[in-house]
Amino acid sequence: MQKKGRFIVVEGLEGAGKSTALNTINQFLTPLVDGLIMTREPGGTPVGEAIRRVIKEVAPINPMDARTELLLLYASRMELVKQVIRPALASGSWVIGDRFELSTWAYQGGGRQLSQEMIGQLSLFCLEGFEPDLILFLDIDPEEGLERALKRGAPDRFEQEELSFFTKVYRAYHERIKAMKNVVVIEAGHSLVAVQCAIREVLSAYILQHPIDARP
Question: Which pTM was predicted?
Fold first, then answer.
């Protein structure tokens, strides 16, 4: 029987603690699975990393059109799925992603107010229904998350947005999650220990329901 990897994604606003969550997942799964690959969006391939630089850099004088931003993100995502994620899953490796398509529905659909229908058409064209096996959404109040993010250093292009932008993103996240069955919400405003414990509990429950293929 061919091995099947799993694709687990961490989502959330700026300052939600994605890096810590990813490290926790990495530490939890490394002893259990053969082949653990970490990815990020945008990025993860030469094309994706080039797009990441374009999207993240601060450009206050000539702002990027929201539709351009959307198309660049899907271009990066297509490369990541084709070059990294699908081959890894086919070989039995597990892939842990720092963001995936849910971010687009929240940031470009909610924050930028782009057409949900247009995003849906792009999704069908680019991903053909491909989605993560499990998504951990780190739930944090937008104001608290932004405050955390701004303490880390110079803000990137997204972190310079107004609080009202992140409030719309937050609402879009929750609206989208209502219709999704592969998302678990983690209260990210709790202590670090509590958040890490919650993540490990979610992973343990997931593995019980979807046993890991035995090592050779």
Answer: 0.93
